[in-house]
Write a structure and sequence with these properties.
Largest sheet of chain A: none
Structural class of chain B: mainly alpha
Helix content of chain A: over 70%
Number of strands of chain B: 0
Oligomer: heterodimer
Number of strands of chain A: 0
Shape of chain A: globular
Order of helices and strands of chain B: HHHHHH
Largest sheet of chain B: none
Number of helices of chain B: 6
Radius of gyration of chain B: 21 Å
Number of domains of chain B: 1
Strand content of chain B: under 5%
Chain lengths: ~140, ~160
């Protein structure tokens, strides 16, 4: 467990929880990144600008944080552009089909004791672990 | 929609990004490290569990407090998911997402946040993620349309 960062990861998790709780208390909505982003692409009248602003907040946050700690965004894995393209397509397609990702199903859904979210979390965690195992086993961790 | 809601959307997005970057989840190596047991516990990085645990630690009590309320602060009503059924679509979608997550080490939040830091790999990932999202939405629209067409009687008139 040489790369384990218990304190900063817990602190970051608390901030994420606070942001998601803010979305619930203030705007009455689930802070699900894939749902909010997918809604921007649908472009329904009257339901797009707030989604766009949330995503803009994410990008602005990443931009600001990169000045505080540029190492927070360094990619230390060996994944080719092709692998990332396939990964992106699967993440985009899958999160729209399954109505959520790590934020909506993970943090919000599990906290709300949603059976659907629990089923989704167990499924995507299992398939992520299986994928990492296969990449390590058959490609030596490089793809 | 009012100005307060727009401001809250931007502000919570900003805070969410800070949390993700601080937590280490913008590093695909840490995400993949959570699922990597190739060296037993030596290579395992439990950080991801602490991130999700931290998120639930804050969200769960807030959810309990908010649940009985009539409305959020900036809107007339809550807009929350109500479905309870676990169908094949949910599970297949989650499985596809899981494969992509394990392959790239990015889920949607960290990928978008990393684009803000001008990471070119994250930009590739996000561009194809958006394409995948549009792809599903278009397929779903086609499916809904052909289903609706099948339900129309053969004389073309919709029963009223």
């Amino acid at each position: 467990m040489e790369n384990f960062t218990p304190y900063t990861s817990l602190a970051g998790g608390l901030l994420i929880g606070l942001a998601a709780a803010g979305m619930l208390v203030l705007n009455g909505r689930i802070a699900g990144i894939s749902g909010i982003t997918g809604g921007v692409l649908k472009g329904d009248v009257g339901d797009t600008l707030w989604r766009f602003l949330f995503v803009a907040g994410l990008l602005a946050g990443g931009f600001a944080y990169s000045f505080v700690d540029p190492d927070a965004f360094s990619i230390a894995i060996e994944r080719s552009t092709g692998a990332l393209v396939v990964a992106g397509l699967l993440v985009g397609f899958g999160t729209q089909m399954g109505n959520g990702c790590t934020s909506g199903h993970g943090i919000c859904g599990l906290s709300r004791f949603s059976g659907r979210s629990l089923a989704a979390v167990v499924t995507f965690m299992s398939f992520a672990a299986l994928t990492v195992f296969l990449v390590n086993h058959f490609f030596g961790g490089v793809l | 929609m009012n100005k307060k809601q727009y401001l809250a959307a931007f502000g919570t997005g900003l805070l969410f990004a800070f949390g993700l970057a601080l937590s280490g989840m913008t590093l695909p190596s840490k995400v993949i490290g959570f699922f990597d047991f190739s060296d037993g516990l030596t290579s395992w990085d439990p950080s991801l569990a602490f991130v999700m645990g931290g998120g639930v630690l804050v969200y769960l009590p807030v959810w309990r407090l908010v649940k009985g309320r009539a409305r959020p602060l900036f809107d007339e009503r809550f807009r929350l998911p109500t479905r309870k059924d676990i169908d094949g679509r949910l599970l297949l979608g989650a499985a596809l997402f899981g494969i992509g997550w394990g392959l790239g080490g990015y889920c949607p939040g960290p990928a978008l946040t990393s684009v803000g830091s001008f990471s070119s790999k994250a930009l590739v990932m996000v561009a194809s993620m958006l394409l995948g999202m549009v792809g599903f939405q278009q397929l779903d629209k086609l499916r809904a349309r052909s289903k609706a067409a099948r339900e129309v009687p053969s004389n073309g008139k919709v029963a009223s």
